[in-house]
Amino acid sequence: MAPDSIKGSLREKGVRLTRQRELLLGLIDKSGEHLDAERLFQLAKAQDPKLNRVTVYRTLKLLKQGGLVDELDLMHYGGDQHYYETRMKQEHAHVICLRCGKVEEFFGEPLQRLRRQIESHFGFHILLARTEVGGYCSHCQSLRAREMEQAAREPDAQHALAEPDGHRSRAKRPA
Amino acid sequence: MAPDSIKGSLREKGVRLTRQRELLLGLIDKSGEHLDAERLFQLAKAQDPKLNRVTVYRTLKLLKQGGLVDELDLMHYGGDQHYYETRMKQEHAHVICLRCGKVEEFFGEPLQRLRRQIESHFGFHILLARTEVGGYCSHCQSLRAREMEQAAREPDAQHALAEPDGHRSRAKRPA
DNA sequence: GTTAGTGCAAACCTTTTGCAGCTCT
DNA sequence: AGAGCTGCAAAAGGTTTGCACTAAC
Question: Global pTM?
């Protein structure tokens, strides 16, 4: 969703467009990555040093409630925080490599089909949907294969193989 | 996954089957609901008052890492905690009513199709997958329709319509 | 001029960690 | 016996809340 149409949606609801919100909206929309609240805060603070972390949380909540952004957790790769993206283009699934952290987006017909089937099967009215998938990307599959070989060759060494734990321990954010 | 096969899987990895783990495993498996850590702790404490909350978290982490249970968040209906279920039967999607909180499970072909397509499209190796959907169940759709009518008829009253916020404020757990 | 929004500090909930002592195998 | 677990206390991470002040409409 383009920032302009977001602004429109907000104005309609009598929500004020403050300097801080304009800034945050712009950052969320421009950023290619999936930002979490803290990262968004850091980026915003770089442009407006007085902006407070709390404002970030409040703005995200507002946008979420308005259905203007979607909340993800990317299979908790990187910790328990949430990630945000504007509700642009079509519905898509997020595909996260548990080894390198790369995130791919999958568009495509099975998603629409799934949505339709759920709606008709339960007579359900879907407002939010989210598919997240974790595993190994093609690149990391070969790396892992090589590591396993290595490990087999030197059975004594303490190889700290990058194992997926599906829930990396608390992300120490770089200071 | 039946508790016995879970125990087997654990034993193979040299994981000890303590009294506490047996208890927790049993509770997770028997419970029809999706339990969060705190609820599981309360149930366990009822049977073993000395059991500590930390043990619940450690056990859940263990099971998660072993791929024996899946972690859900049910669209954060009810707060930010995680819910757990044994990895039984087939892959399924969770369908959460944002008004009444009911959770349905959807099995069915589009899920397998989606999985296959993602694997082949990206050459990805999927280990974990999760589809969660939020909206209104058929029952709540009619209730909501009635509420809207009501609101239209008495335009002055402050109707606290049950709006979905997609992220209910912090769950005050009943003491 | 109102009312909504901001910043600040402090709380809150959920989850993890360090460590001494206990217990499965 | 000894690695692995548990309980306890304390901390950490992420997010929300109360309140006085400020700014958008």
Answer: 0.87
